[in-house]
Each structure stands twice: as C-alpha cells, then as structure tokens.
Specification:
2 copies of one chain form a homodimer. The first copy, chain A, is of the alpha/beta class. The first copy, chain A, has 3 domains: about 170 residues, 3-Layer(aba) Sandwich (Molybdenum Cofactor Biosythetic Enzyme, Chain A), CATH 3.40.980; about 80 residues, Alpha-Beta Plaits; about 160 residues, CinA-like (Maf protein, Alpha-Beta Complex). Chain A is built from 14 helices and 17 strands. A 6-stranded mixed β-sheet of chain A has the order 2-1-3-8-7-6, with helices on both faces. In chain A, strands 14-13-15-16-17 form a 5-stranded mixed β-sheet, sandwiched between helices. In chain A, strands 10-11-9-12 form a 4-stranded antiparallel β-sheet, covered by helices on one side. In chain A, helix 9 runs parallel beside helix 14. Chain A starts with a strand and ends with a helix.
C-alpha cells in the first residue's frame, strides 16, 4: 500500500514548528508495511490544500492529512474535504453533545462557532478523539483500480497520535495489501563514506527494488541503513540477515553498533565490562569528550574525570607534560598527546587516559599542521605503571564546530579499537 | 518571491530522521521575506524526484532541493537535475583539485567514483561547500514571467546550512521582489516563560496582524521573536523598534543578545573586554561548559582550561576541595561548588573560576536534593587572592540530557550576571 502525507499549517512552512507529525506517521506507517512515498506540507490556504489533496488522492491508495481541524478561522480542512468529495457537512448529535459537555466541564458557555467541530461530511466515518475536541475523519472508496483511503487528523501531536493509534492503524491492519518492510541500521565510525564505498560498493549487485542499502553520514560516522520489503516477512528478514552478514564480514570492525546505539554508550559498556576507568585530557575538544561520556546515565561507573588543558601551562602544571616535549614538537603533536593521556590517567587515577590536541580552526593552521589536524593520545596503566602508550594523527575538516565533534568521535573510537582490535 | 522546498531522502519518509532541513530553510527564507508556499519530501527515487522538481519549478520562482548529492549510488540528485535541464555534467578542475587535496591531506588515494563530486551541470554555478566535499549548485533562468531560481544543496545539515548562508542567501538578497518583513529576536536567559509572560503579557495589546511577538523556548533560554510586516519597511522597522524598547525597559537585564548571538559568545566577549580569564570546575556538566566556551573561535584568549571532577577524589586531589566540606555538605552543595570554583581559578591560574555540581538524573536524586538540583559556584581572584566567592542553587528538570544543557547555561549566565549586574 502506497501512502502520501499532507501536513497542513503555516507554522510548518516558516520553520516555527518542526514537522514531527510527518516523522511520527512515517515511522508508524512503515512499521506496519505501508510505503510512504511522498510527504507534502502546505499552509492554511484552501487552494493549496485542495490542489495537493487532489494530487495525492489520484496517486496514492492512502492519504493522511494533519492540521486545520480546530475551531479557528484558519482551520479549513474539513470544509475543503467536504467540497472536494461533494459530501455536505452534517451535524453529528453525539459529537455536539461531547463538545457541549467539554465546555460545561470547564464552566464556560459554548461559543457558537465551535458547533462546526461537531460536523461530519456525509459518507465519512468519524474517528474518536480521546484527547481533544476535534474529530478525526475516515473515508474509504472502492473503485476500478482498488480501494482509496483517506484519514483526516488534527495537527496537535497528542490528538493526532491518539486518533491514529485507535482509529487509523486498526483500519489499515485489516487491509491485506500491506507490504512487510524490515529495517536495520548498522553504525560505522572511523571510516569515510568513500572508503566504505570501495569496500562494499559492489554489493549494489545484491540490491533491487525490494532490498536497499543507504549511506547516511553523521558526526559519529556513516550509518548504513538496510531495508527489505516484500509480501513475505520471513523472506525480507532473511535478505536483511544475509546482507548484514556480508557487510560484517567485510567491514565488521568499523561497525560499533546498530539502531539507536551511540558511540559513547558502546564505549561506556566496553569500559564497564573490562572494569576499566577512564580520564580525559582535552585540548582541541575543550570538554566535549567528557560531555559525551557523561551524557550516558551511570557513566560515573567508569568516568573518573578529566582536565581541559587549553593553555600550555595547564598541560605542564596539571597534567605534567614536559616543557621540553612541548618545545620540541609543539602542542599539537603525537608526543604531547601521549604525555597528556599518560598524565590524565596517572594524576586522576584511572586505568586509561585519552587525549586530544589539534587545530579546530578557523585560525591556528600552518603548512605543516593545517586546520583539521588532530592528535589523539592513549595511555593504559597496570599496577600504577603505563603499559601501553599510543597515538594517531588524523586530518579532518575546515569547520570548527564540525571538527570538535569529529575530534571527540575519533578519541572515543580510539578507546573502542584499543579494547576490541 | 514564492519558494518550494524539495527535501530528498528515504530516511525522512520512514521517520528515521526528522526533517529539520525543511524547518531550518523555512525559517531562514521567511526571515529575508521569501514566502515558502510548499514543502515536499520524496525518497531516493529518480522518477519521484523528477516529477516533484518539475512541479515545483513550474509553480514557484525559487526551488531549493536538499539531499542526494554525495558520492554513493543512492545520491542521484545531480544527474536528475542535469537531465531535467538538459545540462550535461562537466568536470570542474578546481573542484576536482579540491577533492584530490581532500584525500591527499588524509594520505589516501582518491577513489575513482568520487570524481563525480567534481562535476557541475553546464550553465550552473557552483556554491562552495566549506564543510564537506559535495558541491552546491545554483541555476538562474530568465523567462517571460520573470526569473526562475534553483538551489541544489546537500542533505547533511551542516553542509546545507553553510552553503545556504554563504551561497544562497547572498544571491537571494540581491533580488528585489522580497516582501517587507522585519524580524528581530531578543534572547533572554535565566527567566522562565511563565514569568516573562507575567512581566510582558499585557503587551499583547500592541500586537495585530502586522506586528507579532512569539515566545520560543530553547536550552539557552526563551527567545522572543518580534515580527513586523507591511508595505512600508520604515513603518515596520519603527514598530519593531518601539516594541523592542518597551521590552528592554521591562526585562532588559535578562536579554543577553539578539539574533544569532550565543550565550557563550556574549560571555566570551565580556571576558575579553574585562581582560578576565576563566577556568572551569565541572561535575554535573561533565565538560559541557568547556565545550561551549571553546566552540567560539578565539576562546583561548580568555579560556585557560578546566577540571572535570566527576569523582570526589578528583575534587579533592586536583581542585583542592576539602574532604571535610564534602563530608559535611555532600558533593552537591553550595559550599563544595564554591570550593571547586576557587580551586579551579587558583590551580589553573585564572581570574575567575566557575563550577557546577548537581544531579542530572535519572538516578541519584533524594528528597532533599531531587534530580534537577544544581549548585553553581563562582570565584574571582585579584592579586592571587579570592575576593569574590558566591554560589546559587537552582531546581531544573527531570531529563538528563536537557539538564546538562540547562546546567551549563546557568553557569555561563552566572558569569554574565557577575560582570553586568
């Protein structure tokens, strides 16, 4: 079944409100195998709404609208639907009674214009709204090329969700022509999109209209979204499994998690599992590694603390980096990053230390160390002695804000690799 | 000028990603007086993209697309545009060189397929991408009924925003047929929406269809958006000015900036102006204050560094908090917050120290100190001696992620108040 969404409201177009209704409906419909093909937003404008309703009703088997169902002058959806389907608005006594009671409970008289809330276009089913006063509408029409369905929902998210859950989804689930759609997302990091493409690009041979693989870049790395669809859910699941297996064979070591996992959460679990504690020494990231680690509830199990050593004096006095190393190699260097990591672990009393020193930009770049240069240092202690001291140097972007995120991701990934690789 | 947005990506339709690009573009375009009439989302499907591109290009003067510009097989937008406008893709040497350098800096060979990133449809202008490798495109066509404009942007939000700001908005601002719409945003912090409402709610008498005031809450505080529209720009500007003056009279001390100012940027400017340096001592914020301060380019002028003292041992050993204060009052207390702030300033050698100790949640709350409790400490030194030691206790929300942001905002605001109030 193919669906179009039509979300209505000026506030969505001017960016005052983010269109979370479209997100929520997209997820809910995909979950039951409805294929959302198109999502359109227009303002509270009768001509625009009519035009888009017409297009969607022609092209899709299911159209869901949200918005424009309240009692105010810019709520025009119901009268448009009534006109489009030549279905006169009729007052529903049960609804009118509900609206009356709603005002009575609040000790106020019912304003005359809200009587419109109690009308239903002839031939439409009403969908009960357990949360507010605007009623949802349902229309099913049989034609030569199968059934056409229309659901008209309010724009207030709570009301929309409640009516969808109680009124729309049960009606859709009765229909037979739902596709089974299986999604899985594999999260990679420390490997650029183009190099993934080299390693797995030939898998496009496996793909067809019913099996898809999408690359979604983020500051934590490239997410790989696997989608399979088909009438038979088992077949779809087996195709996803086979593709995942092949991907893990080829690039498994870059995959840190699936779905809604976060790198800081995965690293935290690994640290807890190994009974390792961590201390940070952050220069270029300015506290972001600490912030990300502590965004996970329970991180005090493994995160001891850190030093943000922005000034060189802090590197020397608080972390114990030697002035001569700083002078010989400069603050942005692998030797300094290593001394920072060792200093953090030792001074704060943690199993491992992780450090960043780099040039986030926009200033500070040189020929030898351009903007985007990052050195990550790692130190691990056993019985009070540093037994593993390591570092990497990376070259990232020209954007300060993005660099800080990528720098922190690189440091977290270094911990993951040190534990797993 | 009327605009349509065309956002492309399966992930938007299935609800995996919320369409924040449409929100952001809607806001940015409205701000300069472009009327966004329609916003359409389709998947990574060539037929659907072509169909919607055709519709929008027929109906609007400006079309902006996002998504589908990367190097992988599902990135089809550029070839669709090339075909639709009969504009063959030509390799741009400068772009090719940039992509090559991008790989060179990372010490890797350029995969052959990324050469596609360096192509531009004939007759199109390229829009420089300072953040990534996918280039934006601009097309302007004069016809009988005026000019048609097309901007093709990547879907990665950072890249999209950067190209819009640097390439698209300047080109739009040159055009004359923008509506007269004056926006101004006043940024408040440290005052809840309900208490603002009490202080300025009666100003609704000033408002009408052509003068609007909206409250927009954020983790940095409540933004007040003033909008005036009308035929006469001067009149609109004077109305905005009068409203702003009244607002500043009543709540001026809560207003830390306007427009795209950030609290960390404003605080940074104040510190630089007063030639004060700052050191942080973060417990509940886990590094976020440092992260926010260092997100501002040039912050090394005033930010010395900090200590993330998650474990009590770090508070004692690195910051010099006394074990007896910890025992008497607990880690989340004003006395400990003050000792942390004084310790950070003294040990790291800064003019002021700012600290946070609190319970972000979800665990760790007690009757006396429930989740959301925050203590902020402040210390200022002169000639090596602490001359101002202060603290506040606040009660914020139940959500860990939100709390960390609000905690950091409260600490930054404490610096601003100490300087200005």
């Amino acid at each position: 079944m193919k669906a179009h969404l039509l979300t209505i409201g000026d506030e969505l177009l001017i960016g005052q409100t983010t269109n979370t209704n479209a997100t929520w409906l997209g997820e809910a419909l995909s979950r039951i195998g409805v294929h959302v093909e198109r999502s359109v937003t227009v303002g509270d404008d009768a001509d625009a709404i009519t035009r888009e309703l017409d297009r969607s009703y022609e092209e899709a088997q299911l159209v869901i609208t949200t918005g424009g169902l309240g009692p105010t002058h810019d709520d025009v959806t119901k009268s448009i639907v009534s006109e489009y389907f030549d279905a006169p608005l009729e007052t529903d006594d049960e609804l009118l009674e509900r609206v009356r009671q709603y005002y009575e409970r609040r000790g106020r008289e019912m304003p005359p214009e809200v009587a419109d809330l109690a009308t239903v276009p002839r031939g439409f089913e009403k969908l009960e709204n357990k949360v507010g006063t605007a009623v949802g509408l349902w229309y099913a029409e049989s034609g030569d090329d199968g059934e056409r369905l229309l659901a008209v929902l309010p724009g207030v998210p709570d009301e929309m969700r409640s009516i969808y859950d109680n009124g729309v989804e049960p009606r859709l689930s009765e229909r037979a022509d739902l596709q089974d759609l299986v999604h899985k997302t594999l999260l990679t990091t420390g490997v650029p999109e183009s190099s993934l493409q080299q390693k797995i690009g030939d898998l496009s041979d496996w793909l067809d209209g019913e099996l898809k693989l999408a690359y979604l870049p983020s500051t934590s790395g490239v997410r790989l979204r696997l989608t399979a669809m088909g009438r038979d859910r088992d077949v779809a699941e087996r195709r996803i499994e086979a593709l995942e297996e092949e991907l893990r064979d080829r690039i498994g070591k870059y995959i840190f998690g699936t779905g809604k996992d976060t790198l800081e959460g995965v690293v935290g679990d690994l640290l807890r599992e190994h009974e390792w504690t961590v201390a940070t020494a952050e220069s270029a990231t300015g506290g972001l590694i600490g912030h990300r680690l502590t965004s996970i509830a329970g991180s005090s199990d493994y995160f001891v603390g850190g030093v943000i050593s922005y000034a060189n004096e802090v590197k020397i006095n608080t972390l114990g980096v030697s002035a001569s190393t700083l002078k010989a190699h400069g603050a942005v260097s692998q030797p300094v990053a290593e001394e920072m990591a060792a200093g953090a672990a030792t001074k704060l009393g943690a199993t491992i230390g992780i450090s960043t020193s780099g040039i986030a930009g926009p200033g500070g770049g040189t020929e030898e160390k351009p903007v985007g240069t990052l050195c990550v240092g790692f130190a691990r202690r056993e019985d009070g002695k540093v037994v593993d001291l390591d570092s990497v140097r990376l070259q990232l972007t020209n954007d300060r804000v993005l660099n800080k995120e990528l720098f922190a991701t690189s440091a977290l990934e270094m911990i993951r690799r040190k534990i797993l690789w």
